[in-house]
């Protein structure tokens, strides 16, 4: 077998507008790979509801790739060890992926992958997925650069993939690690590109005209907002295709929606430029002014503070895995200012709920 081009899927679970996949296909045999990383799912911002959405998206991605000749290959374990086994067994000509602005754990993992690739002389090509730019010295011109990136042509899905004989596609597990806590989310959204496209089309055709009026209230936001955040987070849809599709429609609601797509990348850019803000306060003066309080944190996270509006929003979030942006801000503000809880403790709980 000729040396492979490995396309490493992470939070980009689609084949449309997937530039690493398209570039790899032009260079030869492609092994599409997803690695279930147990340690990633043990991080304090991970939850079962997130894995269930991811798993549903993986199942649809596997079928989409299989329809073109080669299903998604899934392995579990440390990604460097998985790649090293592939190198020894088949040889790797190139490694392809999208750039990822994740948490501190994924950043350190990517550094290990980069060191492994350099050690073995394997070119790892990372291609931007959102309007986020690495190693910026200044934010000047970022908005213009975002517009250029988002209006570039959509990369079409590959017409065909050559089948890789003798490679077991592997199992997409029910759980990514044995110790991930059960997490009932009875009204959560279902993962997968097809449902994401349905959500996008329904929003633009039916909900966008009332978007500005309905997005702020929790009573109207569940049916008035786009509900695309999870599909963008897991890359079932690309930001580029969502923006370009929205621009085939008009109206103040669509314009307001586009501004929030811009904000999405704007705040990820802040984390890209200042990764320490995942762990540290913006201002040194604020460090250590709050003390952990397990009882208050538990009451807040379970929606039983005794403040009806706060509790209703938290219970809605627990049941749906989603709540609108003003209520997200309110929940966090209440935890930080009214309950005086350390922001990282309450922030990690919210991260697990979404």
Give an overview in words.
With 354 residues, the chain is α/β, with parallel strands linked by helices. The protein is built from 15 helices and five strands. Strands 3-2-1-4-5 form a five-stranded parallel β-sheet, sandwiched between helices. Helix 14 runs antiparallel to helix 15. The model has no long low-confidence stretch (mean pLDDT 95).
SSE blueprint and pairings:
Layout: E1 4-9, H1 19-25, E2 30-36, H2 48-66, E3 73-76, H3 79-89, E4 92-98, H4 104-119, E5 123-127, H5 142-150, H6 193-207, H7 211-214, H8 218-224, H9 229-233, H10 239-246, H11 252-273, H12 294-301, H13 308-320, H14 325-338, H15 343-353
Parallel strand pairs: 1-2, 1-4, 2-3, 4-5
Helix pairs in contact: 14-15
Q: Could you list some keywords that capture this structure?
A:
single chain; 354 residues; alpha/beta; five-stranded parallel β-sheet; 15 helices; 8% strand; globular
Radius of gyration from CA coordinates: 21 Å
Strand content: 5-15%
One letter per element, helices H and strands E, the order comes to: EHEHEHEHEHHHHHHHHHHH
Distance between the termini: 43 Å
> What global shape is seen?
globular
Structural class of the helix and strand makeup? Answer: alpha/beta
């Amino acid at each position: 077998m000729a040396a492979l081009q490995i396309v490493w899927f992470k939070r980009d679970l689609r084949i449309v507008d997937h530039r690493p996949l398209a570039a790899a296909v032009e260079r030869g045999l492609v092994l599409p790979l997803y690695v279930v990383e147990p340690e990633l799912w043990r991080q304090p911002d991970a939850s079962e509801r997130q894995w269930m959405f991811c798993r549903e998206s993986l199942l649809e991605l596997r079928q989409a790739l299989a329809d073109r000749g080669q299903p998604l290959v899934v392995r579990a374990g440390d990604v460097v060890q998985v790649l090293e086994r592939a190198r020894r067994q088949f040889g790797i000509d190139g490694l392809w992926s999208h750039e990822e602005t994740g948490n501190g754990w994924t950043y350190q993992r990517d550094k290990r992958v980069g060191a492994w690739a350099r050690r073995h002389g394997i070119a790892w090509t990372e291609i931007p997925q959102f309007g986020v730019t690495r190693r910026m010295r200044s934010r000047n011109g970022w908005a213009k650069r975002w517009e250029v990136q988002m209006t570039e042509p959509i990369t079409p899905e590959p017409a065909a993939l050559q089948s890789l004989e003798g490679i077991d596609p592997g199992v997409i597990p029910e759980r990514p690690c044995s110790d991930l806590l059960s997490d009932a989310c009875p009204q959560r959204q279902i993962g997968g590109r097809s449902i994401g496209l349905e959500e996008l089309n329904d929003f633009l055709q039916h909900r966008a005209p009332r978007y500005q009026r309905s997005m702020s209230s929790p009573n109207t936001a569940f049916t008035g907002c786009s509900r695309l955040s999870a599909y963008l987070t897991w890359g079932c849809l690309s930001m580029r295709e969502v923006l370009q599709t929205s621009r085939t429609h008009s109206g103040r609601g669509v314009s307001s929606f586009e501004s929030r797509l811009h904000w999405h990348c704007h705040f990820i850019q802040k984390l890209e430029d200042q990764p320490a803000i995942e762990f540290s306060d913006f201002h040194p003066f604020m460090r250590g002014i709050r003390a952990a309080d397990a009882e208050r944190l538990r009451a807040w996270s379970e929606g039983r503070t005794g403040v009806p509006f706060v509790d209703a929003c938290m219970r809605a979030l627990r049941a749906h895995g989603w709540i609108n942006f003003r209520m997200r801000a309110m929940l966090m503000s209440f935890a930080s200012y009214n309950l005086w809880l350390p922001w990282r403790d309450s922030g990690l709980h919210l991260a697990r709920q979404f």
